[in-house]
Amino acid sequence: MRYTLKQLAVFDSIANQGSVSAAAEYLSLTQSATSMSLSQLEKMLGKPLFERVGKRMVLTHWGHWLRPKAKGLLSDAQQIELGFAGQHLISGEIALGASQTAAHHLVPDLISKIDKDFPEVRLKVEVENTEHVIDGVLDHTYQLGVIEGRCDDSRLCQQTWCTDHLVIVAGPQHPYAQIDTISMGQLEQAQWVLREQGAGTRAIFDAAIHPHIDNLNVRHEYEQISILKTLVKQGPYLSCLPALDIARAVEREELVVLNTPELNMARRLSFIWRRESSDNPIRNCLLTEGRRLERVRNLNR
User: Fold this and answer.
1) Which residue numbers delimit the HTH lysR-type domain (predicted)?
2) Which of 13, 108, 112, 292 is the most buried (most CB within 10 A)?
3) Spatial contact of 200 and 149, defined as CB atoms under 8 Å apart
4) pLDDT-based confidence at residue 83 (cuts at 50, 70, 90)
């Protein structure tokens, strides 16, 4: 094969940016040079890699097949270049998509550890719900994801980072706040504010509650946990939230954790990555440091 790393870089950038013009700007190339590189690669491979959908360039079946392999070659080339430049072998940038609880309570410690021990590594972090993180890993937006709950997609690898559990919370003035044990009938009569569909927290709550209650009175759904906590604290609502996210509010007596023994809402927060992706030293570093941080947290509990 006579394809070049430049052609693969152009292909990957168009896939990332969604257009030839945006890819050209990102790579500091002219639009004509970018178009020519793509055209030469497609001609050499004998398959179309993109199709136009409106103003966007969308990967074809062959483009999806090629992309992880191209990324692997480009990553290997970067490591060769950095190694011969005398830089640390673990260096460069990685895109990490994280669900809210992980982003707020786990990822900052991971960033601090990486900054200290691997100063040439840069983490680009975006906060999304679990469904969007999974989609982002599958479409190559993220090289690594952190999600809540299970992921059964066979295209992804999953490694547990830590365990957590969800709790039902009320405001201190809510009638249920003074009751020792809350029944399913009482939960069915309550007004709820919950995470949106697609959030890992919502999926775990739905799986736990629906065997007992068919229909809940869900008044509002929001992505932001801070909004849910404020609504519960100030209003007549219940919510289901991660224990990590409400611990301080409970200590300040702004929220009350209800005793609901019929609900088991243990969960795990996990790293995910594409199964077919090539070995990535930065990703492996993050997985190792994440495990070390969790061992330290367990010892300090």
Assistant:
1) 1-60
2) 13
3) yes
4) low
Q: Which two tokens mark 287? A: 């997985």
Name the band, by pLDDT with cuts 50, 70 and 90, for residue 75: confident
Residue 49: how many CA atoms within 13 Å on its side-chain side? 27
Overall CATH class of domain 93-301: alpha beta
User: What are the structure tokens assigned to 73, written together?
Assistant: 């070659």
List the chain domain ranges: 5-84, 93-301
pLDDT higher than 90, residue 205: yes
Which of 143, 129, 278, 116 lies closest to 194, judged by CA? 129
Q: Which residue has the tokens 């405001």?
A: 171
Mean pLDDT of 269-276: 92
**Cβ–Cβ < 8 Å for 66, 77:** no
Question: What H or E segment, with its residue span, contains residue 50?
Answer: strand 50-53
Report the DSSP pairing between strands 50-53 and 56-59.
antiparallel
Examine the pLDDT at 231 and tell me if it is beyond 90. Answer: yes
The alpha helices in the chain, defined as continuous H runs, are 5-17, 20-27, 31-45, 61-84, 100-105, 107-117, 130-138, 184-189, 200-209, 225-234, 243-251, 281-300
Residue 96 near residue 143 (C-beta atoms within 8 A):
yes
CATH match for 5-84 among 3.40.309.10, 1.10.10.10, 2.40.70.10, 1.10.260.40: 1.10.10.10
Rounded to two decimals, the pTM is 0.69
pLDDT for 85: 55
Asked whether the beta carbons of 63 and 16 are under 8 A apart, the reply is no
